[in-house]
Write a structure and sequence with these properties.
- The protein has 11 helices and 8 strands.
- It is α/β, with parallel strands linked by helices.
- An 8-stranded parallel β-barrel has the order 1-2-3-4-5-6-7-8, surrounded by 7 helices.
- Helix 6 (151-159) runs parallel beside helix 8 (181-197) and helix 10 crosses helix 11 (241-252).
Length: 253
């Protein structure tokens, strides 16, 4: 099975928002990514709208509804408990329902977090997550839960009827080329195999880049999708977005 690349466009929106303009365009970035071979677009709208805003999400949903993009998946990730704000943020779940993505990845990030840095603590969150997962399924949206690389986390995600897990790869990126790399990588390998045995799909994301991606993908199978944003946009400064994505696609192939 070939791993799909979903390009996270948050950083494109972050650069745009720094000048309160529409340059660079999130939509044009999505088109370039798709034409270069990406099979998914990921966005993570936050309540403070520091980068991706609701209008971006709706515009991407409209773009990908075109027949020429029927093979492209829209993945919206974020905190399901984020409610409506006075700045125009409609609430995460309401935003997802309106945009109707292929996949919704539920992430336990707080409003002050710089980025997602851990998986769900299901001992605390299971009861409140269960009706949210059910509600998304009623909208025919595939659900993925952001988890740490433990079989227990995978098992609890499955108990909530999540279709997939997204393995939080921060610990792998930190351990890359260190004495702990093999041990850490084995935890991801075990978690992925266990998820597959339960009938779940496996995604991965966070701090994956052109240097550490190949090692991860060779070890962690099956792997349906990787979501990469920061590294791609950083590399694109030097290489251009199209060439950067071409290189990531070659790694995955």
């Amino acid at each position: 099975m070939r791993t799909r690349l979903s390009v996270n466009l948050n950083k494109v929106a972050l650069i745009r928002n720094s000048r309160r303009a529409n340059v660079p365009s999130v939509i044009e970035a999505a088109k370039i990514a798709i034409n270069a071979g990406a099979e998914g677009i990921t966005v993570h709208p936050r309540p403070d709208m520091r980068h991706i805003c609701p209008q971006d999400v709706y515009a991407l949903s409209e773009l990908l509804a075109d027949d020429q993009y029927e093979h492209i998946e829209l993945n919206i990730e974020g905190n399901p408990y984020a409610g409506p704000k006075k700045n125009g943020f409609p609430g995460f779940i309401e935003l997802v329902k309106k945009a109707s993505p292929t996949q919704c990845t539920l992430v336990p990030d707080g409003p002050t977090q710089l980025t997602s840095d851990h998986g769900w603590d299901f001992n605390i969150s299971s009861k409140t997550l269960s009706p949210i997962v059910r509600r998304l399924h009623e909208e025919n949206i595939r659900v993925s839960l952001f988890v740490d690389s433990t079989e227990k986390s995978v098992e609890m995600a499955r108990a909530l009827r999540s279709d997939r897990v997204e393995l939080f790869t921060g610990p792998y990126a930190e351990s890359y080329k260190s004495a702990d790399q093999i041990k850490v990588l084995n935890s991801f390998r075990s978690a992925a195999k266990f998820a597959h045995s339960l009938g779940m799909g496996v995604n991965a994301g966070h701090d994956l880049n052109s240097e550490n991606l190949a090692t991860f993908c060779k070890a962690v199978v099956p792997l349906h999708e990787v979501s990469i944003g920061h590294a791609i946009i950083s590399d694109a400064i030097w290489l251009g977005l199209e060439e950067t994505i071409n290189r990531y696609i070659r790694i995955l192939n």
